[in-house]
Amino acid sequence: MKLRIVTALALAAGVLAAGAAVAQQAAPPAAPPAPPDLNAIPDKMPFNIPYGTPITLERAQALVQAAVAEANKRGWAMNVAVVDPNGDLLAFGRMDGAQLASVQISQHKARVAARYRRPTRALEDGVQKFGFNYLTTLDDAIASRGGIPLVEGGKIIGAIGCSGGTGSQDEATCTAAASTVNK
User: Is 153 helix (H, G, I), strand (E, B) or coil?
Assistant: First the structure.
């Protein structure tokens, strides 16, 4: 009986010691990044990528197929939209089983990426990381990743937007397709 009590106490002490060691090894949470100074006046315009000749229908359809291939490889059902520099739809694909609400969202992400000349993740980061809630009041803005401008020869030729999964899944799908243009 005494042996069982001693064994139980030894095991309990070992578990407590291991727990304390793990707790000491845990890194403290990282401090959030400091927000940019909104009163600073940059020397150059940010995201000042000029617009170029719009992407062709053939290339837009190939981008949809590249995004669908990436989504299939990962087992995701996506909606994929490709727009011209003005944000007008050129090509679209809805995979079987893709969320219906995401049809319009994918098009919205592509449109915003083209018109604002930046990935929609920049708007998401502004709201989520820095608390710039005013970004949600901008005309036709969407603060959700998954919209990527298509830049060729230093000029925006359109944008691609994906929706149907999490923001990171949407972004990964679009990035894989956009990488065939954005080099």
Answer: coil
Domain ranges of the chain: 57-178
Per residue in 35-74, pLDDT tens?
788 889 999 999 999 999 999 999 999 999 999 999 999 9
Q: pLDDT band at 140, cuts 50/70/90? A: very high
In this structure, which topology does domain 57-178 adopt according to CATH? Answer: Beta-Lactamase (3.30.450)
Cα 69–Cα 70–Cα 71 angle in degrees, nearest 5: 90
Question: 57-62 — which CB contacts under 8 Å span 24+ positions?
Answer: 57/90, 57/91, 59/181, 60/90, 60/91, 60/158, 61/91, 62/180
Contact indicator for 116, 83 with CB cutoff of 8 Å: no
Of residues 57, 74, 92, 80, the one with CA closest to residue 148: 80
DSSP 49: P
- Which residue type does 12 have? A
The predicted structure's pLDDT at residue 16: 47
